[in-house]
Design brief:
Elements: H1 2-31, H2 38-63, H3 71-84, H4 105-128, H5 133-152, H6 167-174, E1 176-177, E2 180-181, H7 182-200, H8 202-212, H9 214-219, H10 224-250, H11 261-271, H12 283-302, H13 307-332
Antiparallel strand pairs: 1-2
Helix pairs in contact: 1-12, 2-7, 2-8, 2-10, 2-11, 2-12, 3-4, 3-5, 3-10, 4-5, 4-10, 6-10, 7-8, 8-10, 11-12, 11-13, 12-13
Length: 333
């Protein structure tokens, strides 16, 4: 009987996040069985797609023992950049009235490179100037917001919401093939690529080594500075891609896009088993963490739970996940 208890506890410990997700779905479905419809699950997956991409970028940083508070603002900057260059020619309030119609890929590439650039800046500040990640990315967050607001306020736009986006652009967020949305396909492809980075590349192994013990990683010959710069740059590029897809999904952009996205992404990572101490994390865990918050946001709204109570529930889940993570860390030691 004792062995069975130990096996049960081990199973619960190893699969706690999946158990929580299933229980959430069951509870909401009991209250309103319509929640189990294909439409609801499709909506949750679509709404979670950009957040998955952001969370995967942040998870790579958390695994090194760092953090990134600038992610949401980089998402907003990328959304505004791509949207401002992909408006229809006949739209009355074009951001650039005299700009010719650009090929779709060019503004998207510019927006992703902008995200990569700010990620690169974060990496250099943290690795070369030894500024703590919290402070470095907090500073970058403010800088990106300021830069985005200046750009957004340029005449003739003058801080007006950017609309009138081209169909080929919004199709990325609302279109699909065989009933599968492009935005979901992109999120799946990014997830597969990041799984390969985590598990099959030297960068991934070095990232985990740095998070486990930075000095030991340095002594073993890992170039810690170069790895950190690469990690933050990759994360920045992912934020840029997420910003582009968010603009395409919603059909517009403002300089307030991405507000608090970094906190939601960090919370999803923590709930998904990415250790706040560094060195531990997985792509499947991050995906389930994002889905849990997707189910919470969509499901609780679906059954009419007050949004303020939703925040309380999310906060309790975050605290429980961190406490659980710390208990596992202590028990291993």
């Amino acid at each position: 009987m004792g062995d069975q208890d130990k096996s049960f506890k081990k199973f619960v410990t190893q699969n706690a996040i999946y158990i929580v997700l299933v229980m959430l779905i069951i509870v909401i479905a009991i209250i309103d069985p319509r929640f189990l419809s294909f439409t609801c699950f499709k909506d949750i997956l679509i709404q979670s797609s950009t957040k998955v991409i952001i969370a995967l970028g942040i998870s790579l940083i958390l695994i090194t023992g760092g953090t990134d508070l600038s992610a949401g603002r980089v998402v907003g900057l990328s959304a505004v950049l791509s949207a401002s260059m992909l408006q229809t020619a006949d739209y009355g309030r074009r951001f650039f009235p005299n700009m010719p119609q650009l090929p779709l890929w060019l503004p998207i590439l510019i927006a992703i490179l902008a995200g990569l650039l700010f990620g690169l800046i974060n990496g250099v500040i943290i690795s070369k100037l030894n500024v703590p990640p919290f402070i470095a990315t907090l500073g970058t967050q403010v800088i990106v917001l300021g830069a985005n607001s200046i750009y957004f306020n340029l005449p003739p736009n003058s801080s007006q919401p950017i609309g009138g986006l081209r169909k080929d652009f919004t199709n990325l967020g609302s279109g699909g093939i065989f009933s599968i949305h492009y935005i979901l396909i992109i999120a799946i492809i990014v997830s597969i690529i990041m799984w390969i980075v985590f598990n099959k590349t030297r960068l991934g192994k070095n990232t985990f080594a740095i998070g486990g013990n930075r000095e030991a990683a340095r002594v073993s010959g890992i170039n810690v500075e170069r790895t950190l710069i690469a990690v933050y740059a990759i994360a920045g590029a992912l934020y840029g891609l997420a910003g582009v897809l968010e603009a395409a999904r919603t059909g517009g952009a403002t300089n307030n896009y991405g507000t608090m996205y970094e906190l939601d992404a960090i919370a999803a990572c923590v709930v998904g088993g990415v250790s706040t101490s560094g060195g531990i994390g997985s792509v499947p865990g991050v995906l389930v963490g994002v889905l849990i918050f997707g189910v919470i946001n969509y499901g609780l709204t679906f059954i009419g739970v007050n949004p303020y109570w939703q925040q309380i529930i999310k906060g309790m889940i975050i605290i429980s996940a961190v406490a659980f993570d710390i208990r596992k860390y202590i028990s291993k030691k």
